[in-house]
Design brief:
Elements (H helix, E strand, L loop, with lengths): L2 E10 L3 H19 L2 E7 L4 H7 L7 H5 L4 E6 L7 H7 L2 H4 L6 E7 L16 E7 L3 E10 L7 E7 L2 H16 L5 E6 L7 H13 L6 E6 H10 L6 E4 L1 H15 L6 E5 L7 E5 L16 H14 L2 H16 L13 H13 L1
Parallel strand pairs: 1-2, 1-3, 3-12, 5-10, 8-9, 8-10
Antiparallel strand pairs: 4-5, 4-11, 6-7, 11-12
Helix pairs in contact: 1-10, 1-12, 6-7, 8-9, 10-11, 11-12
Bound molecules: glycylglycylglycine (GGG).
Amino acid sequence: MSTSYQIASIPGDGIGPEVVSATIQVVEKLAKTLGTFQINFTHIPWGTNYYKEHGRYLSEDALTTLRKYDAGLFGAVGDPDVPDHISLWGLLLAIRGPLQLYANVRPVRTFPGTKCPLNTATGGIDWMLVRENSEGEYSGQGGRSHVGQPWEAATEVAIFTRVGIERIIRFAFETAQSRPRKHLTVVTKSNSMRNGMVLWDEIAASVAKDFPDVTWDKMLVDAMTVRMVWKPESIDTIVGTNLHMDILSDLAAALAGSIGIAPSSNLDPTRKNPSLFEPVHGSAFDIIGKGIANPVGTFWSAAEMLTWLGEKDASAKLMQCIENVCAAGILTPDLGGSSSTQGVVDAVCSEIEK
Ligand code: GGG
C-alpha cells in the first residue's frame, strides 16, 4: 500500500495563490502518474485577506492545526495595504519560531533556461545555503522609546544561544558531508560584532572536530559577497545567521540566474513538527493576476518536500521534468520567455506523463 501524505497548503498573499495552485496541479499529476504515493492538499486561508477579516494572520489554534499535517506548502507573504513587519511577523515568523523550524535550507543551482551572470567553468553554480531560522537578528526583541521625539531611540536585539548555534552548525556540517565536495563556509561578522558572532566562531571550530572529512573555512559576511561574485567555484555549502543568509540567499539566487526558481525548506530536523516549504521569492504584487508568475521556485520547493517526506524517486522525477521544460525554453517572462504560469504547468504535466 502506498503512503498517503496530508499537506497544509497556505498560499498566502500576492502571487502565492497562483504558484501554489500551479504546484498542486503538478504534484497531484505526479502522484497519479507514479502511483507510488498519495497526497492530499488542504487549503488554509491565512494571509492578508484573513488578517483584514479576523485581525490576525493565523488562526488562534494555528500551531495545533499545522501539527496535524505531514508538511506545509507556503506561497508568499506581503501586501501593499499592510506594513511588511506586521505581515511577516504575523504569518511566516509566527510559524518558523514556535514550530522550531530552525534550519532554512536553500539550494542554489543554475538551471537550463536560466543564465548565470558569472564566469564559471561549468557555466553555472551549485551551492547549498543553510540559514539559521529561529533566532539571531530575527528574535523580535528590542523596543522603541520617546516615540516621535527628536531623541527617539529604537533597539533591535539579536539573540544567539549556544543550543541554537550548535544545532544549525552541526546541521550544516552534515549537509556539507552529504555533498560531493564536502566543504563548508561559516559566515559571521565577528570582527565588529564581538559577542554573538564570536560565539558562532567558537562553536564552529568545536563542531568541526566531529567532521574530519569536511573541509571548512570562515568568512566575514561582507567579504563573502565578494567571494560569491569573484570566486564562485570556491564555494559549496554556506551557513550563517538569519539575517546574513536571508541576504546572501537572494544574492545567490540572482547569481544562479533567477530568484524565480529558488526553493526554500524550513525544516525541523528533529521531525517533531511538520516542515514548511516555500519559494524564496515574495508576493510580487506588481504581477498579481497576470498569469505570468514563475511557478518553478514552488515546484522545486515541492520536490524538496517530497525528498523530506521520503519520496526521493518522485522528487527526482519532478526535478527532471522541470529541467526538461526549462531546457525546452518554456519559461515565464522573468526568465526571458513568453509562457504563462499555466503554460509551464501544462508542459511539466506532459513531461510527467512521458
Ligand atoms: N515565499 C517567501 C516570502 O514570501 N518571503 C517574504 C519575506 O520577506 N521573507 C523573509 C524571510 O524569509 O525571512
